[in-house]
Amino acid sequence: MTATRQVMTGTILSHKEILPGHFRMTVSWAPSMETIPSPGQFVMVRRRAEDTPFLPRPFSVYDMDLTEGLEKVILLYRVAGKGTEIFSRMKRGETLSLIGPLGRGFTAVPEKPTLLLVGGGMGVVPLHYLARTLTDRLEKGEVSLHAYLGCGNSNFFPLFRGFKSLCSVFRVSTDDGSVGFKGTVMDLLEREVHRYDPARTMIYGCGPRPMLTRLAAFGIRNGVTGQLSMEERMACGVGACLGCAVSLKTAGGEGNYVRVCREGPVFSFDEFQDSGTRKVEECSVTDGFVKRSEGKAPKSRRMNNKRGQI
Amino acid sequence: MNLSVSIGGGLTLKNPVMTASGTFGYGEEYSPFVDPGLLGAVVVKGLSLKPRAGNPPPRIMETPSGMLNAVGLQNIGVEAFIEEKLPFLRSCDVPVIVNIFGETVEEYARLAGILDGVDGVHGLEVNVSCPNIKRGGITFGADPAAAAEVTRSVKEATRLPVIVKLTPNVTDISAIARRVEEAGADALSLINTLRGMSVDVEKRTPHLAMVTGGLSGPAVRPVALRMVWEVRRAVSIPVIGVGGIAEARDALEFLIVGASAVQIGTASFINPRATLDVLDGIRQYMNRKGIAHIGEIIGSLRTCGEEEA
């Protein structure tokens, strides 16, 4: 199931700013079926033969175009720091070094036909690819997708493009109520949970850390199984540097650090019980969330700043 | 073309390219990209007697041409390493050098004793960049007497070749190198990371949870090169160059100033095949220069008036 990890050179085929500070980049992908990422996996991206940014940046896969011989990976990212700012100025024809696919992605649970995609801001990125890979099963009627997506206001709607046609339920929340439910996506989900049979429902989530904490607790409280995707600063992406460690209660034993790049980035709700992470975040000196969000699936800075509300 | 080098204690490597501790995991992490069997040696992530959880995040931060890390020596402990990680490395046909660290001299010696005679372990690299808890936390490697004492204790506890990895965070690295040599070290590797710091000016907070961290990457290379050159002239045991080596040209610099081998560290994060790329580049250089044996490069630095004709 895990695709072969490779080092590849990719050429930028298109690069567009879909809303201020948010970019969609299409990059050629090594034409090998063995390297097709599974949903939730990520790639480490670096400008080829350039010194800055120094470290590669992790990007979650937003979509793949598998046209034979012309395979492409599609990335969606937000400018969140120096690295992504430099990426954003790259032009068509320039080349990137890609390492991937990496990490443990989302997994399917056959007996759960109702799949809830719960995304906050840039957290929609891995969920979009997940939805796209389920097209066959959707057409056969084996599963149905219900999207619950949150963002600051209607300006962020381009992030949600592509979900509506795949999802039988498409609900949106905005912090300012400019469109859809006024509040956070978790507030919305709490109101809708009574519609779902926990035995037949599975949640896939991605978003800012406070949202993930709330989502895992919500799932456990309501008996709904789920998986969520985390992000962290990374250097290597393959499990060697130990830079992306987070303290999860059950994944590696109490108080043990697990690597987001290897044991994750996808964790089950049970694994995510992140007392350790919360403890760390309470120390003011360790609050590097905005900086960290420069990584894999950059979240909106605005949402990070409203962390308590998500 | 002969690339083999001797790094002391009777240990000969088929080529001078090694991995640096803490940047190559336990070998398996990079196996999709690099066949460890092609390398001169693999130096594994530092091990302690008991598993260590490491430091809270954030642990890393990018800096100009480098990165800071404060991972906190997270590791699975020596027993788990032997049981779970060593079998893979044993199957790779590569010399395995186990990096060890402790908080007391006794811990270093016990680790060395445990690893002595373990099938698949070819040498020890002693990380002396740790606080000595019995001496108020001063780094072993910054205290010539403590560095010598650790070296002596490790040598007494094992028959394996012992490489001592020196910290650059000292005033006179040559003085420490000499003491470690006198205490019986078979070789030296240098440098470990330089202590550094980085601050988020918006929040006025350090970028790392531990406030300071170790700087690595090309940013430290000139410092590392200078120290290797100095130490090479101060001791007669082999010296292994470490610090910001990303390309063959960087590795050649270290060999030319006298390093018998080199370790590739942070560069692997950026290019998982950096070790093999460096090795290829060294071969190309030797081809181009008509050099048959790598020994002709090691310590071949020409100074004033000695330029190539």
Describe what you observe in this structure.
The complex is a heterodimer of chains A (about 300) and B (about 300). Chain A is built from nine helices and 16 strands. Residues about 275-310 of chain A have low confidence and may be disordered. In chain A, the strands form three sheets. Chain A has a seven-stranded antiparallel beta sheet with strand order 4-3-7-1-2-6-5. The longest helix of chain A is centred in the last third of the chain and has 14 residues, at about 210-220. Chain A is of the alpha/beta class and about 300 residues long. Chain A has helices at about 80-90, 125-135, 135-140, 185-190, 210-220, 270, 275-280, 290, 300-305, and strands spanning about 5-20, 20-30, 40-45, 55-60, 65, 70-80, 95-100, 115-120, 145-150, 170-175, 180, 200-205, 225-230, 245, 255-260, 265-270. Chain A is about 20% helix and about 30% strand. Chain B has one domain (about 5-295): TIM Barrel. In chain B, a hairpin with a 2-residue loop joins strand 5 and strand 6 (about 65-70). By secondary structure, chain B is an alpha/beta fold. Chain B has helices at about 80-90, 105-115, 145-155, 175-180, 220-235, 250-255, 265-270, 275-290; strands at about 5, 10-15, 15-20, 40-45, 60-65, 65-70, 95-100, 125, 160-165, 185-190, 195, 200, 205, 210-215, 240, 260-265. In chain B, about 30% of the residues lie in helices and about 20% in strands. Chain B is built from eight helices and 16 strands. In chain B, the strands form four sheets. Chain B has an eight-stranded parallel beta sheet with strand order 3-16-15-10-9-8-7-4. Chain B has a four-stranded antiparallel beta sheet with strand order 5-6-14-11, with no helix packed on it. The mean pLDDT of chain B is about 95. The chains are: A alpha/beta (about 300), B alpha/beta (about 300).
